[in-house]
Write a structure and sequence with these properties.
Length: 166
């Protein structure tokens, strides 16, 4: 979650946490790392919705964007970068059923699906995705339940093209 979203919906944040959802940081601002000064990027990565929480904190950079400083800052602030491999495209004007079909076509065991907390279509899309996952025998889990793995530059570019180009 971004800092403005947490400030705007503190009750929702508490409800999500109480329901057992994993809440991690998306930064203070929804800006690509290349549009931040180094000290802004430090503040972006170091911020967390639950600063008193123990253990590693995950950080999902807006747009998945990195600068040359992103990973070193993440390391120095005790963050791990969390990305996705399936983009739901819930930010487009497509109906939930079409978005769900597209998203489910790209899912494989261990996939991380990117959804957003702003679009009106997202709750309906999430319901359709959960149904589709159950029909495939897949169980949704938190990021802490997945084994982290590094991706190389080639896979990163392929994911970026797949998210926004096809």
């Amino acid at each position: 979650m971004t800092e403005p979203a947490c400030r705007a919906h503190p009750g929702g944040l508490r409800d999500l946490h109480a329901a057992g959802h994993q809440i991690e940081a998306h930064g203070r601002w929804h800006r690509h790392a290349l549009r931040l000064t180094p000290w802004q990027e430090w503040a972006q990565i170091a911020w967390h919705p639950h600063p008193d929480r123990r253990g590693p904190h995950l950080y999902r950079p807006p747009y998945g964007g990195h600068s040359l400083l992103t990973r070193p800052i993440a390391h120095l602030t005790g963050r791990q970068i969390a990305l996705w491999d399936v983009e739901s495209r819930d930010w487009t004007a497509q109906p939930a059923a079409a978005l769900a079909a597209h998203t489910l076509a790209h899912i494989r065991p261990g996939s991380v699906i990117l959804l957003h907390d702003g679009p009106q279509v997202t709750p309906e899309l999430l319901g359709a995705l959960l149904t589709g996952l159950r029909e495939r025998g897949l169980t949704p889990v938190t990021l802490n339940d997945l084994r982290p793995h590094r991706i190389g530059l080639r896979e990163g570019w392929a994911r970026l093209r797949g998210s926004y180009g096809g």
